[in-house]
Amino acid sequence: MCRIMCAAFAAALAAFAICPSHAQQAPLRIGVLSDFSSVYSDIGGMGNVEATKMAIEDFGGQMFGKPIDMVSADVLNKPDVASTIARKWWETEGVDMIIDLPTSATALAVMELSKQYGKIMIVTDAASSDITGKSCSPYTAHWTYDTYANAHTVGSAIVKNGGDTWFFLTADYVFGHSVERDTGDVVKAAGGKVLGSVKHPLNTADFSSFLLQAQASKAKIIGLANGGGDTINAIKQAGEFGIVGGSQNLAAIVMFISDVHSLGLKLAQGLIIAEAYYWDLNDKTRAFGKRFLERVKRMPTMNQAATYSATLHYLKAVQAAGTRDTKTVMAKMRELPVRDAFTDNGTLREDGRMVHSMYLFQVKKPEESKGPWDYYKLLAEVPADQAFRPLRDGGCPLVK
After folding, report:
1. Is residue 19 part of a domain?
2. What is residue 247's predicted lDDT score, i.e. its pLDDT?
């Protein structure tokens, strides 16, 4: 009996050895960590979930003969909550890749876990340039935009047009600090001056005291080093204070089409904005935008289009690699060009930065718009090598 059982056990071991690993046999699972209830829910949120589903569907819905799974959770914009969920997903729920991350603080926290577990994460919402700078990781890709790219695209254009003195309204966490730092560097490099700044909490309802300080600075430009609902509230209240249209102007360094939609063209007209995607750029962007609109009833933000792109690229890389092994898949992601509805000229660098063209837009006047979501005039396409920080300048330890 022992001999029979041992022989059977040996045969089972041999069969296991020639078959893919148990992990390879499990369904591929993608986790979306987003903001579903707060200041960044419009720019990512459920739109990012829907974009992930669209990418899975367009890929074919299966990997290695099994359906691709997706899970999602609200991080409440808290690093500890994000870390707790990510740890659970990677330890016990078989998640292979985590995408989105709504704030830079949540992204940096989960990046540390990603290194610990050797798992891939793709940041499509958070913006700090530190993600691919001093805090870079071999397992993280940063997809959509970052504070360096937006600062150089918007900040340099405004300074060239005479906006040479700045005062910043800054969200008081790593994203806001990064926006202020990177934009301030651009302003000073162009010969302008930063006259000061004031920090405000995330998800601020009343900007009156902060706007009064900005007004008192006499700076030509009030730079909004914030995003989402904070940017919308700041612009609305600046209009109520009579700041816009006087001797001072606002610069929204990080702004989205959803913000313009919420404000309306009457308030947003004339703003100079940097975006990585706009639905009405070309046939590919229009086709994706209209599909997204049918499902979500809103045009996609650049973050939502990027989440689609990043998910699809990841799936293509896993398929091309023939494995879900992290290092092998990351190498394939860097090898394959990014060509999709988000960009037709993307490349993933060794520091984790996915570089691509950025676009400089001006928000249309109400009378210039031909219909819903027709909000932007294209001023310039900024090539990747001009928009994003040079590889050698980021301080990423991975860069030799």
Report:
1. no
2. 82
